[in-house]
Amino acid sequence: MKALVYHGPGIKSLDERPMPKLLSATDAIVKVTRTTICGTDLHILKGDVPTCEPGRILGHEGVGVIEAVGAAVSTFKPGDHVLISCITSCGKCDYCRRGMYSHCTTGGWILGNKIDGTQAEYVRIPHAETSLYPIPAGADEDALVMLSDILPTGFECGVLNGKVQPGSTVAIVGSGPIGLAALLTAQFYAPAQIIMIDRDANRLEVARAFGATACVNNASGDPVPEIMKLTGGIGVDCAIEAVGVPASFELCELIIAPGGTIANVGVHGVKVDLHMECLWDRNITITTRLVDTVSTPMLLKTVGSGRLEAGKLITHHFALNDVLKAYETFSQAADTHALKVIIEA
Ligand SMILES: [Zn+2]
Ligand SMILES: [Zn+2]
User: Fold this and answer.
1) How many domains does the chain have?
2) Which of 63, 245, 257, 322 is deepest in the core (most CB within 10 A)?
3) Structure confidence at residue 48 (pLDDT)
């Protein structure tokens, strides 16, 4: 089968690889029909993710059709359409029993990281019963790819951890796919203001169309005075960090109102300064989280009913044969205006 393989920092290729096999009774083999590229895949290619070793098939998002199941899998059968979660969970370990699937002792984020991933014709899914979700007949399967990772990530790590409430003021630093996913799902709670901050005018335009009440471009200067002006000099109740660099986290520290919550979503590769000299008396909370995907069943319903228009995040389509072009398009988003690219296998 064809697969996109990571060969070490900066090196990837579309290779011919053997078909995956069932290794455990709880596994399923899924024929991948649609997958996508995540910002995290670009982090891996930069060499930021040491757990991902050369030779690994990348990808942790997608939908597909069950090809084969192990003897212990009873809830899925060949031919079933399934959503693949970026998080693998056994459902039985201490973390899983607490709903913290991201830290499952035999799962977590392993797909396209510690085991071969979804940017291939077929993928092996461990703990299939608790790591796959059935897709209702007639669903828009392109849109459902947004549920593998970015929508639960934006919602759980950003909106839920950030305690977005009716009438609250929210700032989202970073208007890429994850920031936009947080923007879409924050609106479940009807906050009074959602301010998007990014350096890319096109992405801010998209954010405005997706429901942002204000957009601040920080390419040419300090965005703090503008955000303070928008919030009556108080700052925001919730600051969601959706970039993963020190400057964007420190911006959240500068704009958080007393009693507010900074919810980190970004993947950080280097240390960030915590300005306790400004924050010690401000009653704030800082949260971090790897997505647990506990909200996936709820999000499936909101996408299925049309309440959450996940398909809006898709800008490009490619065949698996053109996956290298898909990477080029996704990684040059400033020029290509790419948000999420769908790769059809
Ligand atoms: Zn991802
Ligand atoms: Zn577990």
Assistant:
1) 2
2) 63
3) 83
